[in-house]
TrEMBL record:
<keyword id="KW-1133">Transmembrane helix</keyword>
<dbReference type="InterPro" id="IPR050710">
    <property type="entry name" value="Band7/mec-2_domain"/>
</dbReference>
<keyword id="KW-0812">Transmembrane</keyword>
<dbReference type="InterPro" id="IPR001972">
    <property type="entry name" value="Stomatin_HflK_fam"/>
</dbReference>
<dbReference type="InterPro" id="IPR018080">
    <property type="entry name" value="Band_7/stomatin-like_CS"/>
</dbReference>
<dbReference type="Pfam" id="PF01145">
    <property type="entry name" value="Band_7"/>
</dbReference>
<dbReference type="GO" id="GO:0005886">
    <property type="term" value="C:plasma membrane"/>
</dbReference>
<dbReference type="InterPro" id="IPR001107">
    <property type="entry name" value="Band_7"/>
</dbReference>
<dbReference type="InterPro" id="IPR036013">
    <property type="entry name" value="Band_7/SPFH_dom_sf"/>
</dbReference>
<protein>
    <recommendedName>
        <fullName>Band 7 domain-containing protein</fullName>
    </recommendedName>
</protein>
<keyword id="KW-0472">Membrane</keyword>
<feature type="domain" description="Band 7">
    <location>
        <begin position="23"/>
        <end position="181"/>
    </location>
</feature>
<comment type="similarity">
    <text>Belongs to the band 7/mec-2 family.</text>
</comment>
<dbReference type="GO" id="GO:0098552">
    <property type="term" value="C:side of membrane"/>
</dbReference>
Length: 292
């Protein structure tokens, strides 16, 4: 019986040694760190690689992720300086830089960051009115990041970035803002329409002006051409008359032939009879009398 118990005990001891050795050897991934305690006190931080623990003396107190992490907090009601309650969603980008402080300085740093974010948001937004809150996201993000990074530095945590996902005013304020935006759009549309009509009228007036100028120039050119033609005709007639050397009797006879043409029309006529014509008519009358 003793012979049968010996191998069994030896097998148990071998299994126990293998388990202890397996627990003693730790392979730490690159983006993680292990916080090691020895006999209940902090001993060291093990980063990526192969490490050996002393069985029954060393234990893993915490496993810490060293990568940048993102945490989104639920919407928080915040009151602005003009007493408007807005709902704000925020996102925090943080990274653990000191695993020992992140483990021992604070019990739950995620919850602590959330509460600190809410408090800082209320302080920052409380000093701004609604319009400044909606238009100053970059400034709010910068202030939040500065306060959070300073507060979380002693916890071994670095806040890389803070973003406000949404800033939602109450429904009544949203409706008023939509009405204001609609009124602004209608105003800009009316201004653009009026400007278009004004520009069209200006262009039409310029076109009419140019047309009138061109028409006047054409009429003036036509009048000049007619006057030049009439002057040339009168000159030609005058030259022909002088070259023909007409007698007073012939001129008087031609004047009498033109009288019916001058009398045509309904308008009143004013007759101007030169004294030379009277003398010419006397001579014509004498010419038609029979000789005695």
């Amino acid at each position: 019986m003793d012979i049968s118990i010996g191998p069994f005990v030896a097998g148990l001891l071998l299994i126990l040694v293998v388990v202890i050795l397996a627990k003693s050897v730790q392979i730490v991934p690159q983006p993680r760190a292990l916080v090691i305690e020895r006999l209940g006190r902090f001993h060291t931080v093990m980063y990526g690689g192969l490490h050996v623990l002393i069985p029954f003396f060393d234990r893993i107190a915490a496993r810490v992720d060293l990568r940048e992490q993102v945490t989104s907090f639920p919407p928080q009601p915040v009151i602005t300086a003009d007493n408007v309650v807005v709902s704000i969603d925020s996102v925090i980008y943080y990274q653990v830089t000191d695993p020992m402080h992140a483990t021992y300085e604070i019990a739950n740093f995620i919850q602590a960051i959330e509460q600190l974010t809410v408090t800082t948001l209320r302080n920052v937004i409380g000093s701004l009115d609604l319009e400044q809150t909606l238009t100053s996201r970059d400034s709010i993000n910068t202030q939040l990041r500065g306060v959070l990074d300073e507060a979380t530095g002693r916890w071994g945590i670095r806040v890389n970035r803070v973003e406000l996902k949404a800033i939602d005013p109450p429904p009544s304020i949203q409706q008023a803002m939509e009405q204001q935006l609609r009124a602004e759009r209608d105003k800009r549309a009316a201004i653009l329409t009026a400007e278009g009509v004004r520009q069209s009228q200006i262009l039409q007036a310029e076109g009419e002006k140019q047309s009138a100028i061109l028409k006047a120039e054409g009429q003036a050119q036509a009048a000049v051409t007619r006057a030049r033609g009439q002057a040339e005709a009168i000159g030609t007639v005058f030259q022909s008359i002088h070259e023909g050397n007409p007698t007073p009797d012939l001129l008087s006879y031609q004047y009498l032939q033109m009288l019916p043409e001058l009398a045509k029309g309904d308008s009143s006529k004013v007759w101007v009879v030169p004294t030379e014509l009277t003398a010419a008519l006397d001579s014509i009358a004498k010419g038609f009398k029979p000789n005695k």
